[in-house]
Amino acid sequence: MNLYLKPFEVEDVATLEKWFYSGDYDDHFRDMTLLTREQLKIYSYMKDGQAFIVRKNNDVIGLVTIYEMRVVPSNFKLSVLIDKNYQGKGYCLESMLLILDYAFFKLGYDKAIVEVLESNERLNNMILKGGFEFEAKLEREAKINGEFQDVIRYKMFRDKYRKIRGSHV
């Protein structure tokens, strides 16, 4: 698919701003209140995580973050946001695989965690297709447009991921 990850830098804030304020990605930014341009720059120097711009050739098509990175018990959370103009083309799954390769095999983490709104059936199905397993249902975990929603937590361990990816890693 010709996708690659580029570390998020301050000049990428304009793209993040576009997504953040559009209202199309409220489920992705559910844990954030309205932020200023300066506050959005946190993605360029996260203390407990890393952010990457997803590119297809020269086009910016998404954002991938790994965060709440813990040495003990060797786990991290990840999130993927794909621009609405590129959704439904397999880029979310491919971006997720790129960041899992990086976190498991370059950084050495053992467990990945993904949390998805229960109401987002399409993303829940994609996460399962990617080999993640159900871990827990977190009731009333997110508040979107003033309403509480449940979140599903999924897990993937490095050894299982290695088996799934096989010779591709």
Topology of this protein?
Blueprint: E1 3-7, H1 13-22, H2 37-40, E2 50-56, E3 59-70, E4 75-82, H3 91-106, E5 111-117, H4 121-129, E6 133-144, E7 147-157, H5 158-165
Could you describe the 3D structure shown?
- This protein starts with a strand and ends with a helix.
- The protein is an alpha+beta fold and 169 residues long.
- The protein contains five helices and seven strands, in the order βααβββαβαββα.
- The chain has one domain (3-168): Gcn5-related N-acetyltransferase (GNAT) (Aminopeptidase), CATH 3.40.630.30.
- Strand 6 and strand 7 (147-157) form a beta hairpin.
- It has helices at residues 13-22, 37-40, 91-106, 121-129, 158-165; strands at 3-7, 50-56, 59-70, 75-82, 111-117, 133-144, 147-157.
- The chain is globular and about 35 Å long.
- It has a seven-stranded mixed β-sheet with strand order 1-2-3-4-5-7-6.
What is this structure, in a nutshell?
Helix content is 28%, strand content 37%. The protein has 169 residues and is α+β, with helices and mostly antiparallel strands.
Descriptive terms for the model:
alpha+beta; seven-stranded mixed β-sheet; about 35% strand; about 170 residues; Aminopeptidase
